[in-house]
Amino acid sequence: MYNFYKILIFVLLLFSNAVYAEDSAKGRLVAEGICSICHGINGIAGSAGNSALVPNLIAQNKLYLIEKLNSYKNGKIEHHQMSLIAQMLSDDDIKNVAEWYSSIEIDIITEIEPLDY
């Protein structure tokens, strides 16, 4: 019986990873068509993210992106471009785009040496 549960958990994990990969691929398509103009397909904004109006989305938290897009969509946050764009997106589009941008991994490299205490 124990082996049955191990196999069941493995299959569920395998299936959930496949679903996330599919959502991410769908999100990439939406990002390529709509979001990449300002935020870049890889999540690095054309303004290099230095503008509060066009931030980098690379590796951003998925739930944060969903919340922000929904806020633009329902009018809680108003922005002349983002409000219109978010209204064009379905709930699935929003989740998939958030999955895409949050799934991009980054390496942080710094030249700052740790302090010796």
Describe what this molecule looks like in 3D:
With 117 residues, this protein is mainly α. It has a single domain, classed as Cytochrome c-like domain (Cytochrome Bc1 Complex, Chain D, domain 2). The chain has helices at residues 2-39, 62-74, 82-88, 91-103. Helix 1 crosses helix 4. The longest helix has 38 residues, at 2-39. The chain is globular. Mean pLDDT is 82; it is low at 10-20.
Q: What profile does the largest beta sheet have?
A: none
- What's the N-to-C terminus distance? 54 Å
CATH architecture: Orthogonal Bundle
Poorly predicted spans: 10-20
- Strand content range: under 5%
Query: How many domain units?
Result: 1
Number of helices: 4
Write a compact overview of the structure shown.
This protein has four helices and no strands. The radius of gyration is 18 Å and the shape is globular. It has helices spanning 2-39, 62-74, 82-88, 91-103.
